[in-house]
Structure formats: C-alpha cells, structure tokens
Amino acid sequence: MTIWTELTPAAFRLEYVDAAGVRTRTLRAGTSGTPAVVFLHGTSGHLEAFTRNIAAHAERYDCHAIDMLGHGYTGKPSRPYEIADYVEHLLAYLDAVGVERAHIVGESLGGWVGARAAIDHPARVASLQLLCAGGTIANPEVMDRIRTSTKQAVSGDDIALTRERLRLLMADEKNATEELVQVRHAIYHQPDFVANVDNLLSLQNMEIRERNLLRPDHLGRITQPTLIIWGRQNPFGEVPEAHRMHDAIPGSRLELFENCGHWPQHEQPDRYNPLSMAFLAKAAD
Questions:
Q1: Could you tell me whether strands 226-231 and 125-131 are parallel, antiparallel, or unpaired per DSSP bridges?
Q2: What is residue 284's predicted lDDT score, i.e. its pLDDT?
Q3: Which of 104, 106, 124, 197 is found 20 to 30 A from 156 (Cα to Cα)?
C-alpha cells in the first residue's frame, strides 16, 4: 500500500492556489458544491498526513488537504509564524477556492489553528475536529523535543534523522512508512524550508507560545460541534490535556484511541474514518 493507492479510490488533483499572495499546495478530492472539509496538519508536517482519510471523505464531501503557511511546498514568508498568521492564511485559502464555510479537521498545530479560527471567525467554521490538538499548554520538555528533533532532521542529510522524527509521532513505528519518510525528507531539505525552519518553529519559543495559547475561556467560546480525538500514547500531550479541552468546549465529544500516538487519523484510519464521517453527517444536520 502506498500513498497513491490509498488515494486511488477517489478522483483527486494536486494543485497550487494563490492564497492572498502565498502559493499554497492543496490536494482536492470529492465533488464541488458539497460541504467542504479542510484538513490541517501539524508542526513541520504536510498534507500527506491525511492520505489514508481523503478517499473515504471524498465520497460525500469536497475535501481540501493543504500545506499550511511555511510548511510543505507552500510559500514561506520570512517572518516568525504565530497562530493569527496561520488563521489568516487559512481564510485566504478558503476565499481563493470560494468556500464560505468549512468543516475543519486539525491535527496537532492544525487543531490549534482550527480552534482559533472557530473562535474568531465562527461564520467560516461549520464544525471542528481536534486530533491531538496543540495549543492549550506550554510544556518546555515537549517544546524542546519538537524543536530539537525537527532541527536535527532538517540540518542533517542523514535520512535516519527524518525517520526518527516521523517515528516519534507514532505508537507503532510501522506507520511511519518509508514512503512518508522519503516525502518528508525531500520537504525538509528544500533550501527555502531549511532557511525558514526557525520561523516555522517559533511557537516552540516560550514567550511566543504563551501569548498564543488557547485558554479555557477561549475554548468556552467555541459553539461549533466539536470532536476531540486523542491517542493514549501521544508523545506531545497526555490524556488529562484532552479531558481539560473537552471540559472547556461546550457540548464537545472526546474519543480516546488505544495504542495510538500523535496521528490518530493515520495510525487508525479504520476507526477514525467512520467516526469522522458520522460526526460530519450529524454536524451538517
């Protein structure tokens, strides 16, 4: 099984969209005119994080998996990125493709961005999925792990460093497939990615992170249907963090995945996809 065979059941296209001047890579599948679902990856990630999910969702929805600002093959403005910058880019992308309102699926950093968009621009977000979402605490140990492992993989040519960085996300290292390792290694070693990595990691700086955190009173302003999914072996956040998020977001639903790390949608697609589809159907109603 490869990325391409995972995607093959759906008609899809990979293209670039001008999002307010930022050349943005997007993978699109499904039927235009159906409800839009936008998939947002995590820190130093890329749209391939969702290749095990696109085909299932494209049966019913207009799917968009994007490389976020400064990530993957999307444009990389030379400045430190804060959450407002990611939200601005997300909204610019929605405007560029003519989507007024979208269901947001956000993993890690993507969940942080999706939650902030739901709070500040509620008319643009129809529902919210927070998959091991970041942004509610500032843990120096976790921040250092993210920063150090990413910079080592970006600065070193040895693909083993990229493999180690990707395996860090998974409860079972076999889910960090060699194909994904090669995709990420190629991304990490683009000259503009190397030059931009500190901007991309700016939220691992304590001062910057603190002013971007989602506090309980912020989460309490989320009115959209919200599904929280958390891996019990998540290396970047313990289960109590998920419970606090659940307690703060009115009417939210929490699902804990056993034997799962930081990429539940990728590690357990057979569980995640039907759960997500049922949630989206209910949210749309």
A1: parallel
A2: 84
A3: 106
> Given its phi and psi angles, is residue 41 left (phi above 0), alpha (psi -120 to 50 degrees) or beta?
beta
Distance CA 181, CA 163 (A): 5
For strand 36-40 and strand 62-66, is the pairing parallel, antiparallel, or unpaired? parallel
Residue 65's closest CA among 27, 21, 117, 8? 27
Q: pLDDT tens for residues 142-198?
A: 999 999 999 999 999 999 999 999 999 999 999 999 999 999 999 999 999 999 999
DSSP conformation letters of the chain: --HHHHHTTS-EEEEEEEETTEEEEEEEES-BTBPEEEEE--TT--GGGGTTTHHHHHTTSEEEEEPPTTSTTS---SS---HHHHHHHHHHHHHHHT-SSEEEEEETHHHHHHHHHHHH-GGGEEEEEEES---S---HHHHHHHHHHHHHHHH---HHHHHHHHHTT-SSGGGS-HHHHHHHHHHHTSHHHHHHHHHHTGGGSHHHHHHH---HHHHTT--S-EEEEEETT-TT--HHHHHHHHHHSTT-EEEEETT--S-HHHH-HHHHHHHHHHHHHHHH-
Phi, psi of 155 (to 5 degrees): -85, -20
Using the structure block, give the residue that is written with the tokens 């990615």. 193
CATH annotation of 3-284: 3.40.50.1820
Nearest to 108 by CA among 236, 255, 214: 236
Question: What does the domain layout of the chain look like in residue ranges?
Answer: 3-284
